[in-house]
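Researcher: Here's my situation. A collaborator sent me these components and asked whether they could plausibly form a single complex. I don't have experimental data yet, so a predicted model of the whole assembly would be a useful starting point for our discussion.
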Amino acid sequence: MQLTATHISYLHICHRKLWLYASGITMEHSSENVKIGKHIDESTYERESDKYKEIELDGSKIDRYDYKTATLHEVKKSSKFEQSHIAQVKFYIYLLKRNNLPIANAIIDYPKNRKITTISMDDYSKEEIEDWINQANSIIDLELCPPVINKPFCKTCSYFEFCYSGE
Ligand code: SF4
């Protein structure tokens, strides 16, 4: 299976979510959180649409990439899952490098939190990403769905009803 940034992001949130998503069970389109995130993304940065371009690499869509300054800019609605966002952006860097595209800076912007996280190339390690790819593939290959994780954030997950409706 060709892994995308979504797989890598879910690896850092919940193994069950990764397994369900990779199995083709998706519910994100009906999630209100996703709609809110898209609205923040579009309304906050409309004015920058000329500077950044959307590109698609090996099945992953990078919303904002500036070829001239070799900068990647990701916008998120909340920093709650920052580690997963950082992993997602590092995976984008991996894809850019694999496709021989320049990358010097990566920025994660949290407009609601008034917070910016910068990922320098010193923070990036190809081996780390390849390790995540191996971990994700091992989880996806499991015969049975991993167990629920009972975290407070499960309530905002698009799989919440699927995971807990039997309780
Ligand atoms: S509801 Fe919780 S256990 Fe189920 S997929 Fe989402 S994060 Fe994982």
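Model: Some features of this prediction you could bring to your collaborator: The chain is about 40% helix and 15% strand. The two ends are 33 Å apart (CA to CA).
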